[in-house]
Amino acid sequence: MRVDKLLANSGYGSRKEVKSLLKGKQVTLNGIVIKDGSTHVNPDTDNVEVNNKKVSYEKYIYLMMNKPQGCLSATKDARDKTVIDLLGNEEKTYQPFPVGRLDKDTEGLLLLTNDGQLAHELTSPKKDVKKRYYAKINGEVLHSHVKLFQEGLVLKDGYHAKPAWLEIIQSGTTSEIIVTVTEGKYHQVKRMFEAVDRKVLYLKRLEMGELQLDKSLSLGAYRPLTEQEKAYCFSIKRK
Ligand code: URA
Fold it and tell me: Which residue numbers delimit the RNA-binding S4 domain (predicted)?
């Protein structure tokens, strides 16, 4: 890869800042000063140093975001803002993408990474990764609904959903619930409630497997996964 990309990805600032490090003869490749940002280096075998300090290169990025409403969980869109637009330039250089999808009007836990294999594993139906959502529902949610969710609902298009766990926080003209599903089909939760003639008014993802939405993240904010959170993700990869 290009040395300027490697340095930008390793926390040495923007491409412009990296250029000035190179120009200032502060960067060496295997002991020899390099000034050209387009120089190709192999992060696994080459020794790149900035001011005599070895650059440790992280190939992958793992971020937790509290997705706000109004933006798409996609990398690009001609019309709408995407979750990638919320990232800083440094994170963008890694070219992360969202793991699975949340609807435009859904908030909450979203993982962003450039680790394609991990994204694949976390969203694979075979891995049965649980997703836990908080929702506001139009109308009463009844104990009979809890049973129907648990048995596996038949959605309006005939699809047999896998069993899901519904907890009622409060039931009334507007109800509040927590639902845990193991699937991530298009509009999964909304369609499950439609199957029992209810409408989801508000939806927020709280958990994905053992990853819990960090309550200190305001809407649109993000942070790197902790070592423990990453270890959990890698354990799924190995399963
Ligand atoms: N289920 C939905 O209906 N929407 C989401 O964004 C996530 C799960």
Answer: 1-61
